[in-house]
Description:
The chain has helices at residues 16-26, 39-48, 65-73, 93-101, 114-144, 148-160, 180-186, 200-216, 261-317, 322-353, 366-383, 414-423, 476-492, 552-562; strands at 8-12, 32-36, 53-57, 83-87, 104-109, 165-169, 175-178, 220-227, 233-244, 250-259, 362-365, 387-395, 401-407, 437-438, 441-442, 471-474, 499-507, 511-518, 566-570, 578-585.
Amino acid sequence: MSSEPKVNILLVDDRPENLLALEAILESLGHNLVRATSGTEALKCILNQDFALILLDVQMPNIDGFETATLIRQRDRSRHTPIIFLTAFTSTDKMVSRGYSLGAVDYLFKPINGDILKYKAIAFVELYQKNAELKRQAAQLEALNHDLQQSEELFRSLSACSPIGIFTTDIHGVCTYVNPRFQEIYDTKSVVSWTEAIHPEEREEAIANWHEALQVGTTYNREFRILTPQNIERWIFLSSAPLHSDTDTVIGYVGAVEDITKRKEAEQKQIELVREQTIRKEAETANRLKDEFIATLSHELRTPLNAIFGWAKLLRSRKLDQNVIEKALETIERNAILQTQLIDDILDISRIMHGKLRLNLSPVDLISVISAVIDTLQLEAKTKNIQLEFIKHIQTPDDTSTTENYSSTLESDAPQSMDSASKNPNQTFNLDNISLVENKKITSLSTHSPIPPISGISNSVNSTRSPSQFIVAGDSSRLQQVIWNLLSNAIKFTNSGGKVEIHLEKIDFQQAKITIKDTGIGIKPEFLPYVFDRFRQADGSTTRHHGGLGLGLSIVRYLVEIHHGTISAISPGVDQGATFCINLPLLK
């Protein structure tokens, strides 16, 4: 540690956890870290203590960071104390300018980079200690001799051996003196105007802030680049304060300049290192997901093919009875449908990634969409002994809300559905995609085509019925694809004897809300943020219990969003079920 005495650093933040984080970063410096949980408490600390640096949170209740900085600057004791604003919000140029106008030396955005904060704190502490030493030296000069010539000579002697650059200016900001270290930094032997060497990209703003400080007689603290006569670029930190006459009139400025090029290079290397680590981590994650997806794709494509090839070989032997032949044909058909679904999912993702997926928009009744999907999946739910319930929250003419419930009957089957269709010609069923059952394994319907009605039955809403309250502008087949994916997932991941609910309701008369809730296996908390990412699966191994490519929910989110809707997933945890909520704008 340095032999320099400890200095005080004031940490101001209304959140104790943020103060603990700042202390953890700075405690290794060995200085006194003073905490304040509000602007008022910070002002009390400044009344009886000097600080080398103030780290000030912008967003605080009652007195915010800007107001606190203003009050700090009004006190003689703290008028020149460097202030670094800390903020968790992206600051506008106006906000940044306001901060600098109040005497701020820098902005740091949360989450704080510990190394950068430590480097800045070290620089300000060293500058404070060196400035304190200069003040002590100046006080000694005044005590030794009030004669201007002798005090000036002593000042020049001291500044000549100072490890930092020192300069003085007149009331107009023109340099009247620079020490040897200043000349080394600027690579010049003559007295120069420090503003002329500022890098062209930063010159206008730096000079404007300097002139503003001259006009109001405030301190000027800033980091910027300079170009030496040899065209060498350097980073410097310049800190200056007004010189006052006996009548408290500003008669000039005295300032200190420090070459911080090495620190800036270290900061940049740290930033690049963090960026490289982030890019490398993202690339590793992408490669891992790609490898998992390729392995899963290979497994998922091979599984139905193995079944098809196996049964085809048995059929070729022509030694099977009629029941086995029927079983073979059903298995081949089911696995062919599954293969088609997998390929369609891959094609959909390809269209999405290339921006080629298009919608055929028309007025769509969400009740019909949901009912059609339920018709295709009720047999699968029945096979797993899962209760399937559709609850519609209907707004009545007297502005009250009623509910209409549909609950799947475990006694119903495909032939009964046919009988129901003959009795109610306005009901839509999907016979082409009714699930086939073998050994309690359920096939999947294609999720990419409109669910067709029985021949001769109209797709339109019966004009004799009350108009639906849930009409949206959308692509009917794609909306069916969304509901089918979510509902089939709910059934797939719910154990026998469980329950799946579909709720349909209005939100503020402007949106339709579809909620699909199950009592299934739930979602791990750590996986929940990634549930809609493509190629992501909670279990990425090829030996996982449930099939699929991990594309369905990604496709669902995309389809909902291009319908100008939103989708979210909620799950308390494993074995506690999951809830998916879709909001779609109603057609006005």
